[in-house]
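Quick one, C-alpha cells below:
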C-alpha cells in the first residue's frame, strides 16, 4: 500500500473505523446545513447529507444505512457555526451502536434533541448577537471612511473564529461523544457562556448605536454671536440622547411586528422631511 493510500485510510482514533477522509467530508458537508432549509423539519435534509459518509463507513447493508439516514431526517435546528459538535456526537453514537448490541439507537435522536436548545443558545448569542454586531461595527466604521478593508474585515472577523470553532467542535464531538455535554451541562458552563455572550452583545449594540446612529438638532438657542446649537445643551444633559431614543423607538416598533421594510422607508421619509425643514 502506498503512503498516500495509508493517509487516506488513517482513522480519527485507534479504536475507531471512521477515517480522516470521513471527518473532512462531514466538515465540508456541514457548510450546507441551511442550504435545504424547510418549514417542516428545517435543517434535517442537510444534516442527513452530512452524516452520509459516516453512515456509509459504519453500516454495510442497505437496510442498515436506510435506518440510520431516517434517524437523521428528524427535526433539526441548530446554529450552523457550531453544528459540527452535534455531527461528531451523532457519529460517535452511531459507531457505538455498531459495536454494542445493547445500545438503543433511539438515544441518538434523544441526545440531538436535548442539545439543540443549549447549543443554539450559545451559538446564536455569540455569532449572531455578539460577533456579527462587532464585525458590522468595524466594517461600517471603515466603509464610512472609504476603506476597502471594511467588507474584508467583516468577513474575516466572522469566518476566522467560525472555521476554527467548526473544526474544534467536530473533533471534540467525535472524541467525546454523548459524554461531552452531560459533563458540560452538570458544570453549568452553558448558562454562564450564554449570559456572558448576551451581556457582551448588548454592550456592543449600545456602542454601535452611539457611534453609527446620527441625529443632531441644527436649531440654535439665543441670537447673534452668542447663539449656541440646541444640540450642545442636549449633549450636556445626556450624550447620545437622540440616537438612543431613535434606537428604542425602532426596537419598540419591531416588537409590535412592524415590518422592517416599512421602518426603513419611514426612516428615509422622516430624514428627508427633517432635513428639508432644517430641524436636523
Amino acid at each position: 500500500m502506498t503512503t498516500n493510500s495509508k493517509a487516506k485510510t488513517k482513522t480519527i482514533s485507534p479504536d475507531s473505523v471512521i477515517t480522516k477522509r470521513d471527518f473532512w467530508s462531514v466538515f465540508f458537508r456541514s457548510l450546507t446545513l441551511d442550504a435545504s432549509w424547510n418549514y417542516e423539519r428545517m435543517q434535517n435534509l442537510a444534516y442527513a447529507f452530512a452524516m452520509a459518509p459516516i453512515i456509509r463507513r459504519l453500516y454495510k447493508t442497505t437496510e442498515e444505512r436506510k435506518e440510520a439516514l431516517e434517524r437523521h431526517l428528524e427535526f433539526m435546528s441548530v446554529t450552523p457555526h457550531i453544528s459540527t459538535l452535534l455531527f461528531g456526537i451523532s457519529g460517535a453514537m452511531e459507531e457505538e451502536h455498531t459495536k454494542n448490541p445493547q445500545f438503543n439507537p433511539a438515544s441518538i435522536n434523544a441526545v440531538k434533541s436535548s442539545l439543540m436548545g443549549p447549543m443554539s443558545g450559545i451559538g446564536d448569542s455569540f455569532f449572531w448577537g455578539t460577533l456579527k454586531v462587532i464585525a458590522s461595527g468595524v466594517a461600517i466604521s471603515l466603509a464610512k471612511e472609504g476603506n476597502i478593508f471594511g467588507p474584508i474585515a467583516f468577513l474575516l472577523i466572522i469566518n476566522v473564529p467560525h472555521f476554527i470553532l467548526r473544526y474544534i467542535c467536530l473533533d471534540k464531538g467525535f472524541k467525546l461523544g454523548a459524554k461531552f455535554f452531560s459533563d458540560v451541562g452538570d458544570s453549568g458552563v452553558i448558562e454562564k457562556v450564554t449570559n456572558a455572550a448576551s451581556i457582551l452583545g448588548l454592550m456592543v449594540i449600545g456602542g454601535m448605536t452611539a457611534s453609527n446612529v446620527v441625529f443632531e438638532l441644527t436649531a440654535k438657542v439665543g441670537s447673534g454671536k452668542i447663539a449656541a446649537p440646541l444640540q450642545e445643551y442636549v449633549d450636556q444633559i445626556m450624550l447620545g440622547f437622540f440616537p438612543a431614543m431613535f434606537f428604542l423607538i425602532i426596537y419598540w416598533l419591531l416588537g409590535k411586528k412592524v415590518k422592517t421594510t416599512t421602518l426603513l422607508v419611514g426612516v428615509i421619509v422622516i430624514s428627508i422631511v427633517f432635513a428639508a425643514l432644517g430641524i436636523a
